[in-house]
Batch of 4 targets.
Target 1
Amino acid sequence: MNDTKPKHDRTAQAGKARTKAEQAAERAAPERKAGAEQLQAENARLKEELSREHEIYLRNLADFENYRRRVERERASVAQAGKREMVLSLLDVLDDFERALEHMDEAPASVSAGVSAIYQRLAGLLESQGVIPFESVGQPFDPALHEAVGSVESDEQEPGVVLDELRRGYRWGEELLRPARVRVAQ
């Protein structure tokens, strides 16, 4: 290093260079500060937008879950209503078998046994599906369970008690499937 300039000139030039660098840094500081503030504001805006979008996403997710549950309930309800109509029709057939069995005295034994077997099978099928008859005779009249088709003077029962069952009533689980048609004591 063969420097021809004296050492103090080099130091003076370095000082000037530092001074120029410091001046440039001082001029750039407000711009950097404004840039940083702008980035912070942009960051805050993006965070707020992300939060809003996330809330919308959660709301839509909850709406879809509610929709899915409602559709499932409606599907089950429609299926239950279809089954209910079928079971009510089968109860009418069961009633016809009961009436037929009452008049089988004169029929051959094989016919009577066949009709009885079919009746038992149909009754067993309905019972396996949860369709169960309930007793009405001797019970107090309950408009939720009974359909009164007449009243009869009676010394044997208290007024308001079911004397005769014209059509048997059935439950399906805990639900009333068909009310019993009854005559009530007066």
Note: The helical segments are 7-102, 109-128.
Target 2
Amino acid sequence: MTKISKKIILIGGDPNSINSEIIYKSWRKLERSIRNKIYIIANYELLKKQFSQMNYCTKLNKIKDLNQACNENEINIINVDLNFKRPFNVEKKAASSYLLNCLNLAHKLALKKEIAGLVNCPVDKRLLLKKKIGVTEYLANKCKIKNNSEVMMIHNKKLSICPITTHLDLKDVPKNIKSKKIVLKIKTIQKCFKKLFKKNAKIGVLGLNPHNAELRKNSEEVDEIIPAIKNLKKLGYKVFGPLVSDTIFINNYRKYDVIVGMYHDQILTPFKSIFKFEAINLTLGLEYLRVSPDHGVAKDIIKKNKANFQSLLECIKFINKFGK
């Protein structure tokens, strides 16, 4: 009996971005066996006009749904309506409605058994119309996750990192560092890491303050982080810390499979300095596998043909390899 290949959903993302460029460049590098699994959720006319302005010659195929077979020689698009006049300068209201419709359709399709997972191209978070959330939180809400157990993981073959808080202003981070939240998120990390990579993760946990606040009384390290680590150790998790943030990424990060930080830039900044575009963004704890490139919409290089497509290419290959 022939094994049926599962389908890969690719969300076109923010229309005012480098997304059409990285889609085209990734497509050209993909093997034919992967191309015929990919269904892009986007506006057909938008991509057609963006490709035209970039002088890309690949054929586009407008399809109705997942039941239509993909053509490996064409980019297959499940159309989502969008009104626009200028293909790289879509008005914010229209772009927002379009993006939300794309995400909602992708979520609905990703719940189907024949889907390996979904990849979303970069978005301007302001289009999500809610403060302090990104696609991670948006899809967690769609999956009805109520306890904040979802996790953002930035993954490279040599290291993964996860922030406990994600898209919060720095002033709001300390009050959101809670022992219960740390325990929940590390449980999600371990469960998903073992499912994806077939091993128990060795996890290093950073403190919040410089020098871990010298472990002074009433610090977040003493009140929240250390109790969480002790709790997890009792449950058998390979968890170590609190580690000191200012030196961990010099060399000691190599001792761990995953580094858990307390806030976004604490770990994403050094990680990107080391691995650059050789990483992908995963959301752990959803009902399906979701990944995205580890970079933004790069409006400053739209139409300049300078975009690095490596992260999107790795996302597609990851879903193809590890998708359910």
Note: The chain has a mean pLDDT of 92.
Target 3
Amino acid sequence: MKFLLTLTFIFSFSAITVAQESTEPEFQPNVAEYYVSVFKEGKDMDDMMRWAEKWNEWADKSDALKDYRAALLVPYYHSGEQKHDFVWLGISPNPEAHFKGNDHWFNNGQKLLEQLNTILETGNQATYTWQRTVSETPSGQAAYVVYSDCKLGEGVTATEFYDAYYAYAKAAKKRGDIAGRKMIFPSSGVPSTWDYDFVQAVTTSTIADYGKNWSDFWSQANNDTMPELKALSDLGGSCDNERTYSIIPVRN
């Protein structure tokens, strides 16, 4: 079973940034959880959105989830090998905030969980990850994402790849690139057959912008005209299993 992570952010995820020297990457790691979800017979997205509205009202009543952002990721182009109707994505700025929210849900969300279990099948994949933004869309928002499972080149560390990827993204932006990018590192809940180093996520503010970026930037970028792209390519590695999602915002 392939690792199913295809993020798309139609709503704004606040970038976790800090004041740093200009020579250092601006984005700091955050954490996220992904719940692969399948509707029970007779249930659909309307049922899920009604439940999500109740959950959001419940979440507003506690500081435990004040920094938690959530969305439903709806599959667009995918292989169909792992049956699912959507993925619940939740993002927190750091592990302390995240597990504080988990604790609140575990101890106080029983009624909502019972309601959710009447809508969704249980026992599906749930994955906890670290992730780090490489670049953002011009608006800081996204409606479409392309995920890929990636392996690092021999002897290349994740930090070395991130630094090169960040430099490439900065140079690409100056050439008209409008894509956001993340490197995602699954930690818990990873299928035993998943044999990769990280998941790459590439986002655009709209679905149409993904096609536009191909015309305006990706189709023209090459190693001869972009030394940053050549430096990234020289690190080696590969990415496979592309799949895409659109998104429904739940909690901004």
Note: The chain has one domain: 30-251.
Target 4
Amino acid sequence: MLTWYTRGAVNSDRCSYLGEYSRKEICKGEWGMSRKDYERLCSELDNTRQKDHPHAYEVLSQEEREALQYWIERAIQTAPKADERHSSYGLKHEYERETKLYVSHAQFKGAMLVAGYLPTEKGEQSWHFKIKPAYDEKSFSHDVASQNKRLRLPAYRSTPQGEQDPELNALVQKVLASHRDDDTYAVMI
């Protein structure tokens, strides 16, 4: 079961999801993506030839959803305009780089919807959102920002570069433990 909730004064582009570790009230229409709105949007996409359908999110295990939603919560924030440089497909890879956990493009798109981020153009295969990285490169010194760019370090990450997030690491370990006997699950190395 998915739990939807609001966090204080969120805007219409943002509503979050958490797994078993925190249950809150259901989102109301103007405060974010309610389950009903999620189902409606996915239903609208059923009537198109949409590749990478976000309903694939629902096949993720509870542990996988928790890790993915935690990362989105920590790595991404809302912005007044769309980030045209980072699509849903690119963000999926940023998540995989940091966690070493594979998710499909469709699953990542579904996770963004559940988190309350609406695509600017839902008819496109790769979606863009009104977002920005939680850790903005502009806040770093010129030398650090240049080095991050030269080393192709991810723009979207759950912690500042070089720091570890113990809670994210624990969620990743929980995912790995839940799949130890599953031959079909792959961890990126």
Note: The two ends are 30 Å apart (CA to CA).
